[in-house]
Amino acid sequence: MTVRGAVSGAFAVAMLLVATAACSVSFNAGSSLDRAKVEQTLTKALEEETGTKPDKVDCPGDLEGKLDTTMECTLTKDSAEYAVKLTVTKVDGLDVRFDYKVASTAKNGSTPEVTFGETMLEERVSSILEEEVGQRPDKIDCPGDLAGKVGETMRCTLSAGTDEIGLTVTVTEVEGTSMNFNVEVDES
Question: What is the signed CA dihedral for 39, 42, 48, 51, rounded to 10 degrees?
């Protein structure tokens, strides 16, 4: 079986994964969300998505709870700064939803090396297999981090009950800080 998984960018040293595709956050607010709450909400969303907390998120002010309002914040990780664009996508009473998109290059123009951390890789492979076959494996065990180089492969082990089956993860595409890969489970 071959399935495809898309993984969003990573900072090489810290392996902080950030979304290059827009991700959404929902919060309760009045007519706006104050700066500190925006920074806190965005930090929490990034940490939940990636498993790693940014060193700092800095926004220029309050985020107005009005459809299509935009704001650019700055995410700092390991001394590199990345622009994060927020866009309000839904306002329903006090419930406000915004999408965020992290730039694929640092403000100084450098592009982070794409790496997918071992724990996040194991979780993502489990999720992909669950989506494909309707059942989550008991465990996926990979030997380390997956480097974002097209053609890079990694052998992992899938455990389901008493069965252990090998699988291969192969990087098929790297664009900016996005990595796509295939997961192929060995024939049993």
Answer: -70
